[in-house]
Amino acid sequence: MTKQGIITKVSGPLIVAKNMGSAQVYDVVRVSNKRLIGEVLELRGDLASIQVYEETAGIGPGEPVYLTNEALSVELAPGLIGGIFDGIERPLDEIYKAYGQGIPLGVDIPKLNREKKWDFIPTVKVGDEVVSGDIIGEVQESESVVHKIMVPFGKKGKITAIHEGSFTITETLGEILNDDKIVKLQMLQTWPVRRKRPYTDKIAPTQPMVTGQRVIDTLFPIAIGGIAAIPGPFGSGKTVVQHQLAKWADADIIVYIGCGERGNEMTDVLMEFPELKDPRTGQPLMKRTVLIANTSNMPVAAREASIYTGITIAEYYRDMGYKVAIMADSTSRWAEALREMSSRLEEMPGEEGYPAYLGSRIAEFYERAGLVLTLGAKPRVGAITAIGAVSPPGGDTSEPVSQATLRIVKVFWGLSASLAYKRHFPAIDWLKSYSLYDEQIRDFFNTHVDKNWTNHVSFVSELLQTEASLQEIVRLVGVDSLGASDRLKLLVAQMIREDYLHQNAFDSVDTYTSLDKQFKLLDLIVEFNRLAELSIQDNVSFQAIDNLTIKEQIGRFKYVIEKQALKTYENILNEMNHQFDELRKESNNGY
Ligand code: ADP
Ligand code: MG
To answer: Which of 196, 213, 280, 520 is most buried (CB neighbours < 10 A)?
Structure first.
């Protein structure tokens, strides 16, 4: 490298250097002879403001800055799946193996392994014409993931050579000829993280991403390609919900960004998530996961970059035609990193010290999610579903990060401290949460699960609203002031909360409920309500209904394994009819 700048100022993770006229914004630079990794954030004449991704202690004015003239990029190739990376894709697991705790400054370990050989099976032959995005072959990347090798963006032509065999990610797999120029093909591609990867078209989502979490699928469903936020105070269950989605959601690939919530030690990161099991295969969940980890003791700048690194990797697997789910836990920690950099840049602060562009940065991130038709002569449908946790201080969502997030996401799962305190999990507040995908995906439920799905769901949401106003009356004048039919409403609402919405993530059966079983459980509660209303019309007392033992059977239905759900459901329906018949007989006999 010939061109170099000179440091004029150091302020924590921010460095100002002069003599930087030939750099560009978002270029990577190496700072001082320790070769710390930095990225140009701002250029004014030949002065550059540089965000440094490593500890800058001991660095001072006069030291050199080396230009690379390359934008901050990620490497994309087999080896991502199962990997644990920091915010700029440095392989934490490899670094940990080589150096133990703490990343040595300026470490030059390649992002993706250069020695490992992968078995490549071509899916094109000599003479085929290919364009950007076309798949030229496959690599079994893990037990769970087939990695599709694609023609890189901007390249096309006729295949003149293609080889089957074992290759490292930088060895030549074949060649294409374009306008008399030979382009060598390899597995490895790079992509600048702050630029979205192109696709042919966006498609409106029409299918839910089934999660097996009843409150989500039934009341506040998310579409495949949708975007959701989970705001909630500390301890309200954000991480458990994100882990549940990572395990159970209908997604081929998981990109999980752990953003400095807890965990001061690298070992925490390397332990916690990798222990999760993939319920479908019994294998570690890591076999279809890319983990980006920022512990709170890592430099803030790497946290800022982590969501771009994560979403770029997600886009890459989307381009292969996969359903990717990306989780960021928590975007508040990311926004704090943004705030810190902005204040060091001495930008005009907006609300609560966050930069004025906070909202547009959040929007840019979520807009990279979606359902798309990919590039390529034979395009595929791929999806990124994005779910961001938000941890507003004190749980108050009127703060800027929550507000900016709510303006862009279409699903809001608001976690409530008081529900968590009562151990009602998931603590998703049914009165504040919403899903704007409801209408787009309603048909799916009605045609694929049951034609009564929407009716049942409306019944549930209306009853929960009614419960809130009835509780208000009860608080003022006591429960005795209510008539039998209002008492029944409270009872059924309680069944919905306790037997339906409450779901234990740590119970081996309750942790996941298929849509079919969700409907059956809903149906039992709706049917209970219908029979109870009829009984009340027949002058059966509320107390007699409240005493029915069928309630307990309905309450246990969620713990019934899927295979027995149908049989048990039918038995409960029969028994329920029988119990209500008996009640009405007794009351007609004048009891
Ligand atoms: P947060 O990330 O919001 O700080 P966590 O996700 O770590 O909160 O949840 C805190 C605790 O709440 C968990 O350790 C667990 O005990 C309990 N919890 C949260 N969600 C559930 C759930 N769905 N089922 C059972 N327990 C839960
Ligand atoms: Mg958490």
So the answer is: 213
